[in-house]
Amino acid sequence: MVDAPRPRPARTVRLRPVDDAELQLRHRVVHGYRRAFRMAGEGPVLVLIHGIGDSSATWTELIPDLARTHTVIAPDLLGHGASDKPRADYSVAAYANGVRDLLTALGIESATLVGHSLGGGVAMQFAYQFPERTERLILVSAGGVGREVNPVLRLVSLPGAHLMLSTLRLPGMRLQVGLAARLMRLLDTDLGQDAPELLTLVDALPDETSRNAFIRTLRAVVDWRGQVVTMLDRCYLTEGMPTMLLWGDRDSVVPVRHAFGAHEAMPGSRLEIFEGAGHFPFHSDPARFVALVEEFTTGTDPADWSREHWRDLLCEGRPTAAGHPDDTRDRSRERDLREVSERSAT
After folding, report:
1. CA nearest 74: which of 59, 94, 53?
2. Is the pLDDT of residue 259 over 50?
3. β-bridge partners, 247
4. Is 312 noted as a catalytic residue in this protein?
5. How far is CA 166 from the centre of its chain?
6. What is the pTM of this model?
């Protein structure tokens, strides 16, 4: 069940203004590739990780408020935004490594990770690979929970996707996509809740290099049957790590029922649902989003990771329904987990 409704948290006192120059893109070369990022503010570190086809620009309206009380780092993942787009490994594990290496280059030892969509999967993978560097997890409409995903993404994962995406650059196509997006919004469809972001995605794929990177990233996590990676088989390892899940109840990309599944599987996690919001709840209600992040980071202690605790959790293993053979719900959950665990984000 979802946590009992809480009153919206009061905003943290703003410590200092953020200069516009701090919000500009910076660049750092790591492993020979130029990686773009935004960095602003002072205080405990927040790393904002965007979703597939997006960039750090998705956070720009939130960074000034968050940076009044935090050091905010928002990277453009490799293959996205202003970062290089090589023919490379675009798996969630590789992205987690890339986030670690950028933070290391910037002198950051540990941080609270805020991940949206694909970025949520990257944040969870980062916590799995580098728990000693993860203070908290904030997962926003995160991928990697169940198989279901929007059919459009499943379609783009098929052969011929390059040709399909290239048609978006034909004269007049953006206008047609814009009209379709507005119509979906007027009809009050779930996908229509994210109509502005659909247009942003079209603009984010201006050339073949960008489209190739997008398809390689998508195929690492989605195939014709849906999502092919999962975190459910190892999320018991988050025990003791403060974790908050934020989801829109009208998310047409990653259904809100995934939020409830993740909440149940992650010991001690907190779940907040944004009513009427789609896949981008931080765009739908930025004030509530910022307030929740500030309240969560100030109201919880960073994870106290220890090698011994990690080993004990790992050796004990994921809780199963083996001890409760008559529990139909547990048996159903085990079947679902086996189904989504055909491949995992190791």
Report:
1. 59
2. yes
3. 273
4. no
5. 26
6. 0.83
Percentage helix, strand, coil for the chain under 3-state DSSP, each rounded to 5: 45, 15, 40
The one catalytic residue among 56, 279, 283, 284 = 279
Contact present, 29 and 65 (Cβ < 8 Å): no
Compare 145 and 27 and report the one with higher pLDDT.
27
Q: Which residues pair with 47 in a beta bridge?
A: 73, 113
State how far the Cα of 143 lies from the Cα of 189, in Å rounded to an integer: 21
What count of Cα atoms within 13 Å lies in the side-chain half-sphere of residue 333?
Answer: 21
Is 252 catalytic? The answer is no
Q: Residue 14 has what pLDDT?
A: 45
Catalytically annotated residue among 54, 65, 251, 285 = 251
The mean pLDDT value for 119-125 works out to: 94
Stated as kind and residue range, the H or E segment containing 150 is none
Tell me the CA distances in angstroms from 92 to 128, 150, 228, 344, one per residue in order: 11, 19, 11, 10
Instruction: Determine the Cα–Cα distance for residues 288 and 268; give it in Å rounded to an integer.
Output: 22
* Non-local CB neighbours of 202 within 8 Å, separated by 6+ positions: 168, 173, 174, 177
Which residues does residue 138 pair with via DSSP β-bridges, in sequence order? 114, 244
**Dist CA 115 CA 217 (whole Å):** 16
How far apart are the C-alpha atoms of 44 and 190, rounded to whole Å? 35
Q: Which of 83, 117, 141, 269 is catalytic?
A: 117
Asked if 80 and 213 count as a contact pair (C-beta separation under 8 A), the reply is yes
Residue 184 confidence (pLDDT) above 80: no
Task: Choose among 79, 75, 86, 83: nearest CA to 50.
Answer: 75
pLDDT tens digits for 202-214? 676 767 888 888 8
Contact 57, 18 (CB under 8 A): no
What is d(CA 184, CA 118) in angstroms, rounded to the nearest whole number?
Answer: 24
Integer distance in angstroms from the first to the last C-alpha of the chain? 29
Look up 283 and say whether it is catalytic. Answer: no
Give the Cα separation of 98 and 102 in Å (integer).
Answer: 6
